[in-house]
Structures are given as structure tokens and as C-alpha cells.
Write a structure and sequence with these properties.
About 80% of the residues lie in helices and about 0% in strands. It has about 400 residues and is mostly helical. It has two domains: about 1-195, Up-down Bundle (Growth Hormone, Chain: A); about 220-405, MFS general substrate transporter like domains (Growth Hormone, Chain: A, Up-down Bundle), CATH 1.20.1250.20. InterPro entries: MFS (IPR011701), MFS_DHA3_Transporter (IPR053160), MFS_trans_sf (IPR036259).
Length: about 400
């Protein structure tokens, strides 16, 4: 039986999203997440060496982010999406089979490289496939659910890590993490990709990179979208590493801390599911969302009570929504041939800004309570919201090509 024209896109979207959500879940179902710092410490590494490993991880992402994006615009994006988890799996296997500083360092390089291969490639593949199916307007909803799948996997990993560690120690936790990566790689091979890769050769790759950077320099709408992503993502992306410390400073029992952390991330997960409806907010609505989330963060951290942690979770959910929406704005403004390159430029900016936030947090935290630092770091979001609100009048005059669905 021949499918009707309406049926073909629906079937194609369903195949894309089902595979995508499975891939996202497996890619973040890493049981080593909540315990790898313990592994490093139990191996005998001092704090400075552990900190240097985290720095190496970030440095790898910074160095490879943009080149890998240009590569994704030159070759098959699906290929990079299955290659990335294989590199990560190799790094995790090293950690638990030959635990040492050198193995941990190499593992972080492999993990950072694997993440760089997927950053930009995934967003570009999904947007192009949806656009081919005439369903580009679903991008925000699809990516919101993708992020929710990742968050669910992270929560599941937190819940499973303890029992698996008790049963089989670090080797069992490592084996489960490697298995999840291998399953993610296998799932990535099922992602649809109808885009024809550019011709091979280093000249073509370098030309793609130069063209992408030229577009970023020459188009003010693209520049604004590129700057908005790190402005929204970097601060809360750094603060989430300190949530457990914020909670412990409330004076609650240590056994209560994981439950409040789960409350925060459960709220963020639910918030991700509203990305589709939130796309209708427009620029002023996005500014209001960011400002409201900043106020919730400041009040939630400032009251120093368990109830306040629920407000912190609500703030993070708002920032998560805003993160999806600013990604949508960028995707609508860039050309298909350089989509992964420019998405990776935005990710590079986010990485650099996040490292700066880590440094600022360390300086402020040396003399202030965690709650005070959280309140102070809510301020940049109010500035971002103000800039967005003031620029909304100018945004209404953009052409339909630049803003087909975001305003």
C-alpha cells in the first residue's frame, strides 16, 4: 500500500525522534558520573591532580569543539555520533582496568573528544532532518524532550550507581558505563541522515571552517544568537556542580542531600518537556523567562531552607528551557552547510564562559557562603534579560528568513 504524503513525514519524524531519544538516554546513562571522583581519590590521587583532570577535560573540549563542528559539516554527521560514544567507552574502560593518573588523563581526553564529535553534529542532523520532512517547527519540542531523556538517564545513573558499586565495585560500574556507550553507538547508526556529505579533503574541511567563521563575523543576527547561548548556559551550567554543596550548607543530614539533588533535577527534567509551547514566547517572553528564573535562583538560594531548593530547581528548569529556545534561534539563522560549525562555535563560547564562572566561583566561595555566591551569580541573567527586552523592538523588524518561527 502506498503511504499518503501526510503519512510519510509523520512516519519519518517518528523514526527520527524515537531513535534520537533512545540515543540521548543511553549516551548519558553513565554510572561512573556520580562516583568517578571517588575512584580517583581511592586510587590515591591528591586534590590537585583530580582538579587537573577536570581542567584537561575542559581543555580538550575547547580545542576540539570548533574543528569537530567543521568536520561534521564535511562528512557524515551520523558517523561522528556513533564514533563519539566509542571513544568515551574506551576511556571508561581504561579507568577501571588500569587505574592511574595517566589512564585517567587519557580517558578524559577520549571522553572530551567523544563529546566534541557529538556537539553540533546532533543539533545539525536533527534540524536538517526535520526541515527535510517539513517539520522544522517541531525542533524546540524535539530537543526539549531530548534533553529530558538525557536528564532522566542522569537521574537513573545516580540511582543505579550505588547498588552496582556495592555489588561489583568500580569494575562493575565501569562495565555498565561502557555497555551504555556501546549501546548508544549502536543506536546512533540507526539515526536517519539524508544529507549528502561534502567532498573529502582537508582543503574542503578548512574551507567549511573559514566559511562558518565568516558567516559568524558578517551576520549580526548570527552574532547575537551565538553570544546569547553562552550568556544563558554558562552560569547555571557551572552552578549545577555546586548544588550538593549548597544543600549541605543548609544543615540537613548528608543522607538527605541526594534526595534534594534529585528534586532539583526532576524539576529540570519536567521543565524540558515544555520547550515546544515555550517557543511561542518570543523575545520579550524569553527575557521574562530568564529574569523570572534569575529571581527564583536568588530567592531560592538566599532563603537557605530546603523549600528554597525547590525554587533553585524551578530556576534551573527555566534556564534549561531558555537554553533550548536560544539554540532554536541560532538554528533558524544559520545556513545548512555550516550548521554544525556554528553550533560548535556557540558551544566553544559556552565552554570558555563556564570555565570563567568556575574561576569566579572559586574566588567568591573562598570568602562567602555558597548561598551568597548563588545569589550574586544570578545577576548576569538579569543583565541578559534586560538586553533581550531592549532589543525586542529591533528583532520585530528582522526578515522572515532570519526569524521564521522564534518571534
Amino acid at each position: 500500500m502506498t503511504l499518503s504524503p501526510a503519512r510519510v513525514p509523520a512516519t519519518g519524524v517518528r523514526r527520527l525522534t524515537t531513535t534520537l531519544y533512545g540515543y540521548a538516554f543511553l549516551d548519558d546513562l553513565v554510572l561512573l558520573y556520580p562516583v568517578y571522583a571517588l575512584l580517583f581519590a581511592d586510587t590515591g590521587l591528591p586534590l590537585w591532580q583530580i582538579s587537573s583532570l577536570f581542567a584537561l577535560w575542559s581543555l580538550t573540549a575547547v580545542v576540539l569543539e570548533v574543528p569537530s563542528g567543521a568536520w561534521a559539516d564535511t562528512v557524515s554527521r551520523r558517523r561522528l555520533l556513533w564514533l563519539g560514544p566509542l571513544l568515551t567507552a574506551a576511556g571508561f574502560a581504561l579507568w577501571v582496568t588500569v587505574p592511574s593518573y595517566g589512564s585517567f588523563a587519557l580517558g578524559f581526553v577520549l571522553w572530551g573528544a567523544g563529546g566534541a564529535l557529538g556537539s553540533g553534529s546532533l543539533e545539525a542532523l536533527v534540524y536538517d532532518e526535520l526541515e527535510r520532512l517539513g517539520a522544522a517547527e517541531r525542533y524546540a519540542r524535539v530537543m526539549g524532550r531530548t534533553r529530558a531523556a538525557r536528564l532522566l538517564a542522569t537521574v537513573a545513573a545516580m540511582g543505579l550507581a550505588g547498588p552496582v558499586l556495592a555489588l561489583g565495585g568500580y569494575p562493575a560500574v565501569g562495565a555498565a558505563s561502557v555497555l551504555a556507550c556501546l549501546l548508544a553507538a549502536a543506536t546512533a547508526t540507526r539515526l536517519p541522515e539524508h544529507r549528502v556529505p561534502a567532498e573529502k579533503g582537508s582543503t574542503r574541511w578548512s574551507a567549511t571552517l573559514r566559511a562558518g567563521l565568516a558567516e559568524a563575523r558578517g551576520d549580526r543576527a548570527v552574532q547575537g544568537a551565538l553570544l546569547l547561548i553562552p550568556a544563558v548556559v554558562a552560569v547555571w551550567g557551572a552552578l549545577d556542580e555546586y548544588v550538593s554543596l549548597l544543600i549541605r550548607d543548609l544543615g540537613v543530614a548528608d543522607t538527605t542531600v541526594p534526595y534534594l539533588v534529585l528534586l532539583v533535577w526532576a524539576t529540570v527534567t519536567v521543565g524540558s518537556l515544555f520547550a515546544g509551547p515555550a517557543e511561542r514566547l518570543g523575545t520579550r517572553g524569553l527575557a521574562a523567562l530568564i529574569a523570572g528564573s534569575a529571581l527564583a535562583l536568588a530567592v531560592g538560594a538566599g532563603v537557605r531552607t530546603p523549600a528554597g531548593i525547590a525554587l533553585v530547581g524551578l530556576a534551573f528548569a527555566g534556564f534549561q528551557l531558555a537554553e533550548v529556545l536560544v539554540d532554536v534561534r541560532l538554528q533558524h539563522r544559520i545556513e545548512d552547510a555550516r550548521r554544525a560549525t556554528l553550533t560548535s562555535v556557540a558551544s566553544l563560547g559556552t565552554e570558555l564562559a563556564t570555565v570563567a564562572v568556575f574561576g569566579l566561583y572559586a574566588l567568591l566561595g573562598a570568602a562567602m557562603a555558597h548561598s551568597t555566591v548563588f545569589v550574586i551569580l544570578s545577576a548576569p541573567y538579569l543583565v541578559t534579560a534586560l538586553v533581550l527586552a531592549r532589543g525586542s523592538g529591533r528583532a520585530r523588524n528582522e526578515s522572515p528568513r532570519e526569524r521564521p518561527r522564534t518571534q
